């Protein structure tokens, strides 16, 4: 039996199971959802059991658990370790969702729900591919590690990996948590940016003050925070933290030309985002700015009176969540320290500043000549009718560097998302075709990978 | 009978009545308290009735109502129009209150509650002074106008005043909504700053984006807002809005020397606020920075993810509430337009900016040789044992300029608050001595004012 027809025959069930998974609000960042995160792990465990996996276990960590499962069919065959995560980003702002974030809705052949694409939908494809292979034949040994803390920096995955090196032994790691350039131009992520995420707190007076009584004489922490943030980039769009670019590995002229060959339309890009102009570091294209250059964004800011109406307050404190995307060569921990040192050093003596590192991760690049990358490319050719092009993505999957370091394994980032999925945003969605073709492509990948290791 | 002994005899009731008034959360800025604002107006009306006032009326406006009352004892006597407001600032952040903001608590001879000082406590002194004078003798004709929208810019008081010029005819206006330099150094406010309050909205992409996928290529509205706010002041602490200072009436060297004679200790000021350094416009002392110079403060800022944990979002929008304190010469409406024009002009083309004026008011100065000012100074000398010094305050009471313009009347700002009242902040309080001595001082003021007009 062909993979395609098996998937077609089970399509409705494959979708309904995903809907049930999406209904559990497994927001790892917010303690009030801790119970749901646990429930989600159990849901994954049960589906693995039904699909015929072995050694299924919900492995506790000091945070949210990791679900492990495997099926070793023949020690002589290659082993593929699949990674995914079952936790999701917070759904705020809720009011911008057209339908409930945790009640999946289907519109124009897309599934709308938080986590539909990132990463419940993409991780669940691997579970269904595994189930299908129990009928169609499983060409390689399979191991699965589905974690629950990816959206909060995989805080405890490192400990898990270090403690389970034997159990995680494999030839390659397969991850679906990235995107395609487009449906017509399938791509495989050949590089990811690292991350350094911090929270800053600026404190002025010991209490909120009346802006009339004190305004003009006492430093306003919001104004000061704004000035400090503004100073983090120069007029060329470069980040001013001393030493920030020191270890950046410059990408060759050739590779930059390669990257810019992707069928990218600035006009469509701006139209899609509703902006009149892009903005970024001088001397780089949009594809390069997100793919091969580091960035700095304020992810959240708050201070003073933010309720309805007006309040003439000079607040005691102002806060911001700031993150930097890093590229190969930059070490997350080192950049975090450079930022902390710099931010503290530029604080005027009329305020006190506190910088709290949240989490980080290293950038990574994949060898596009490796067996895994070629197997993925061939799988796309079979299912999508054309080979996948290599693409540098701006996002971060810190654990890719961790796997390389701890397990010595390369990760193949074979993701099926699209920009229109708007992951991390209200109305996140995932194409039903992406989901079903993704399952098929995964099955083909394992066949291809087995072939190459014959 | 002496005012002092009458007040002493009625002390407990005078306090309990104020506590009842403070229990009603009359937050004018927040629609959900609209019913309480109305209740407060009725409370004031009933107390006036009990005290023997006449022509008592809750006058509706297009916003919150104005409570009017009077007692004309002899057309040949001078008439004092008393102004106050019964609405209060929002109590947020609630968690910083040691005791409930709307359940008054007495600690070390101070009343802790939102509005204890600003302005319920100070306005109610006039009600109790009026009651006392019905026994002690009322030396002047009295009119009262207690409004419910001062904390939101007295939005509809202008219409009320224009429509009631006859009813509001008087010789002077008396207002207690300001502070004393200290208990040992009573002062009368001789000048107030004006206000221009706006809300700004910066919009980048049409939806929240993943900061990894887009960070570095798409302008982040929070970063842009921070840059725009930072650019509003130069390195000298001067405001950069073109034309901002054009009409500022410079204060004479003599008056500046006068102002700086006040027994002000920078060390104590910083200690009280818990700051290591003050900050403001170069070339001016702290007293001058709040008294005679304009200022610009961000009263609130918000955007992106402000919940617990980390969210790697590049938000669609960022917001800020920004207010400017103005000095004589600067017209609120004109400054508002200058700011709007400037803020829109400095917006980079990668974002859209919207500026919404909230409310404003004009600055004012009082002639310290006027009968009213001298009457107030003498009243202080009688009750506090020393005359009051003139002081420029940083706050705004926009209606003072309105009264001058519409009614042709000067306002005497005889307030009894202290910096430690921390009005507009959590744990606002008002000294019981200030409350009781204030009542006595008000009674003496009316005697003095009657004398001067004999």
From TrEMBL, chains A, B:
Q: Does the keyword Protease apply?
A: yes
User: What keyword terms does UniProt attach to this protein?
Assistant: Hydrolase, Metal-binding, Protease
Which top-rank group of organisms is this from? Bacteria
Show where the Peptidase M20 dimerisation domain sits. 198-348
Matches recorded under InterPro entries: Cyt/Met_Dipeptidase (IPR051458), Peptidase_M20 (IPR002933), Peptidase_M20_dimer (IPR011650)
Q: Which PANTHER family match?
A: BETA-ALA-HIS DIPEPTIDASE, SUCCINYL-DIAMINOPIMELATE DESUCCINYLASE
What name has this protein been given in UniProt?
A: Peptidase M20 dimerisation domain-containing protein
């Amino acid at each position: 039996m062909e993979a395609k027809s098996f998937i077609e025959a089970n399509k409705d069930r494959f979708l309904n199971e995903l809907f049930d998974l999406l209904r559990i609000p497994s927001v790892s960042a917010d303690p009030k959802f801790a119970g749901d995160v646990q429930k989600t792990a159990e849901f994954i465990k049960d589906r693995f059991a039904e699909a015929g996996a072995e050694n299924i276990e919900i492995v506790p960590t000091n945070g949210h658990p990791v679900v492990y499962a495997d099926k070793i069919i023949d020690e002589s065959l290659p082993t593929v370790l699949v990674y995914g995560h079952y936790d999701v980003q917070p759904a705020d702002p809720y009011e911008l969702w057209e339908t409930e974030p945790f009640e999946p809705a289907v519109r124009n052949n897309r599934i709308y729900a938080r986590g539909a694409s990132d990463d419940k939908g993409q991780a669940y494809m691997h579970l269904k591919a595994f189930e299908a292979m129990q009928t169609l034949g499983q060409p390689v040994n399979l191991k699965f590690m589905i974690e629950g803390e990816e959206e909060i920096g995989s805080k405890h995955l490192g400990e898990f990996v270090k403690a389970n090196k034997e159990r995680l032994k494999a030839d390659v790691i397969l991850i679906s948590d990235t995107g395609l350039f487009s449906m017509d131009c399938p791509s495989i992520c050949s590089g990811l940016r690292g991350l350094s995420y911090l929270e800053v707190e600026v404190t002025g007076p010991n209490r909120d003050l009346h802006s009339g009584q004190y305004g003009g004489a006492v430093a306003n922490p919001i104004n000061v925070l704004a000035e400090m943030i503004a100073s983090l980039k120069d007029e060329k769009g470069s980040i001013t933290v001393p030493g920030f670019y020191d270890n950046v590995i410059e990408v060759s002229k050739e590779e930059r030309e390669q990257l810019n060959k992707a069928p990218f339309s600035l006009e469509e890009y701006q139209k899609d985002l509703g902006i009149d102009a892009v903005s970024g570091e001088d001397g780089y294209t949009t594809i390069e700015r997100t793919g091969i250059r580091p960035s700095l964004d304020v992810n959240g800011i708050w201070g003073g009176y933010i309720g309805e109406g007006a309040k003439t307050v000079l607040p005691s404190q102002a806060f911001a969540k700031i993150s930097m995307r890093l590229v190969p060569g930059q070490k997350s921990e080192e950049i975090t320290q450079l930022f902390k040192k710099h931010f503290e050093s530029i604080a005027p003596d009329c305020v006190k500043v506190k910088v709290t590192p949240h989490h980080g991760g290293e950038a990574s690049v994949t060898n596009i000549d490796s067996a895994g990358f070629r197997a993925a490319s061939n799988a796309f050719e079979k299912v999508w009718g054309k080979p996948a092009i290599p693409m540098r993505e701006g996002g971060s999957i810190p654990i890719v560097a961790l796997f390389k370091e701890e397990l010595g394994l390369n990760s193949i980032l074979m993701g099926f998302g699209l920009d229109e999925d708007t992951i991390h945003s209200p109305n996140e969605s995932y194409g039903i075709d992406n989901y079903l073709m993704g399952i098929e492509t995964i099955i083909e990948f394992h066949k291809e990978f087995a072939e190459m290791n014959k």
